[in-house]
Design a protein that fits this description.
heterodimer; A: alpha+beta; Immunoglobulin-like; ten-stranded mixed beta sheet; 3 helices; about 25% helix; B: mainly alpha; 8 helices; about 60% helix; about 0% strand
Chain lengths: ~150, ~200
């Protein structure tokens, strides 16, 4: 009964939103362009923990005040811990590879990248990363495949 | 007279996913065309600004790129995207200290909250509808925006956008439309001169 009579309202809403809040062309174009990041031979390290997810309410509000965010990515055989600190409008990433090992680490985002070595203890720091959606690529000297992390907005 | 039958077979989502996973850029674009509006609707339903919604969209599609060939249920892609977008929205809200209070309780937006951003609308009716949409509960906004997406999503997709069981989408949809109608009626009656009948 009620549901039937309200169907025209949903149609009206659809038509209103098509005009008032359409999908912007640049958003559609960016979604299509993200296909260039397809990797064929890389191992994916998925996000397994994000300190932000554990926060709710007041704690979340406090976190917004600038406390560091801790991310953990896991792939078979390697774990990557990354602390994200807000440094003005950019971010500083401090990372640790587990087990500790040297590697070439690259932080990638849609319009650029920064490369840095991880030392023999698997530690690395990357300064001035833009507040964007990023992914890390880790190439260890004798690994068969590079490891890439899940994309994450920082 | 001979009429040539033109049969356009739409590829299934699973077929497109398989092709995109094998490197077919056209298949990827077709997937984006099919689901980009749903992802956008979810982000806007969570009251994200256009800039934040654009970021959520970008992160969601990059997540799909990295998961090509790894999805367990290719046919459930709409739900996977909606759920990924929802999680990203919640992260954006937490990061800015804007946790949504009472999402599951369908609490209407407080009158002290900022009003929905102004948009250009030709008709007064649409303007009131936009305003009314911004006043109902956040969950109703996500649900109705998702349902109003073109092409129409399945209830599975909508349930993933909300993190709600599929079985409760129907009743919630009816309730949310009812809330929207009441708001709209209230605004319209305030605009009309008292006692003015047709």
């Amino acid at each position: 009964m009620a549901e039937q009579s309200l169907e025209p309202l949903l149609a009206e809403l659809r038509s209103m939103l098509d005009g008032a809040d359409p999908l912007p062309d640049p958003v559609l174009a960016a979604a299509k362009a993200s296909f260039v990041w397809r990797t064929i031979d890389a191992e994916l390290a998925e996000l397994s923990a994000d300190s932000l997810d554990a926060l709710t309410g007041a704690a979340g509000t406090r976190a917004a005040g600038g406390a560091a965010r801790l991310l953990t990515f896991q792939a078979p055989g390697v774990e990557i811990e990354v602390e994200v600190a807000e440094t003005g409008s950019t971010r500083r990433l401090t990372g640790q590879l587990i087990p500790p090992a040297p590697a070439e680490v690259t932080v990638r985002w849609s319009s650029g990248s920064i490369e840095t070595p991880a030392d023999e203890l698997g530690r690395f720091t990357v300064e001035s990363v833009p507040a964007a959606t990023v992914s890390l690529s880790i190439v260890q000297p004798d690994a068969a495949h590079p490891v890439v992390t899940s994309w994450i907005a920082i | 007279m001979h009429l040539e039958a033109v049969v356009v077979l739409e590829k299934t989502t699973a077929e497109l996913l398989g092709a995109a996973g094998a490197g077919d850029g056209e298949a990827w674009n077709a997937l984006v065309e099919r689901y980009a509006r749903l992802v956008w609707s979810v982000a806007r339903g969570f009251a994200l600004s256009a800039a934040d919604a654009a970021d959520v969209s970008q992160t969601t599609w990059l997540r799909l790129v990295e998961h090509l060939g790894r999805l367990r249920e290719p046919e459930a892609l709409g739900g996977w995207l909606a759920s990924t977008a929802r999680h990203e929205c919640l992260r954006v809200l937490r990061k800015s200290g804007r946790e949504i209070v009472g999402f599951d309780a369908d609490i209407d937006i407080e009158s002290g909250e900022p009003t929905p951003e102004a948009v250009v609308l030709d008709s007064e009716r649409d303007r009131l509808l936009w305003q009314s949409l911004g006043e109902i509960s956040q969950r109703c906004q996500v649900l109705l925006r998702a349902l109003a997406t073109t092409p129409a999503p399945s209830y599975q997709d909508v349930s993933a956008a909300l993190g709600m069981p599929v079985g409760s989408i129907g009743p919630t949809r009816a309730r949310c439309l009812d809330h929207l109608k009441k708001r709209l009626d209230a605004h319209e009656s305030r605009q009309r001169p008292a006692g003015g009948g047709a």
